[in-house]
Known about the structure:
This protein has helices spanning about 10-25, 30-55, 70-80, 85-90, 100-115. The protein is mostly helical. The relative contact order is 0.12. The mean pLDDT is about 85.
Amino acid sequence: MPLLGSRPPYGPHGLAYQEAVFAALDRPGLDPATMMHAANAFLGYLVGQLHLELLRVPAGATAHVPPPEQLRYLARAVGDGRHPTLARLFTQGQQLDATEVFEAGLEIVLDGIAAKMG
């Protein structure tokens, strides 16, 4: 993951990867700008989720489970009235599986791309 974006993707594998992404998006009459925007949206989601996973989920775990002291801090921090949306998510939310989080977000991104591309 740390190597992503650290060098130009112009080697044989990088070009093959880019070809696969753009071939999947290619439609008759689709302008190149829309194809580029769709590819960037997909790749941005993919790289962003990978980065977040590395920050939140320890290697080998399937979900982020904060230690008890962090949970106590968060309960106090979001319960002060300044963060009502976070407080609602903290008290009413559920611990989501990392795979579920990725797949649900990917579905939203792909549905948006599909709607844009007609």
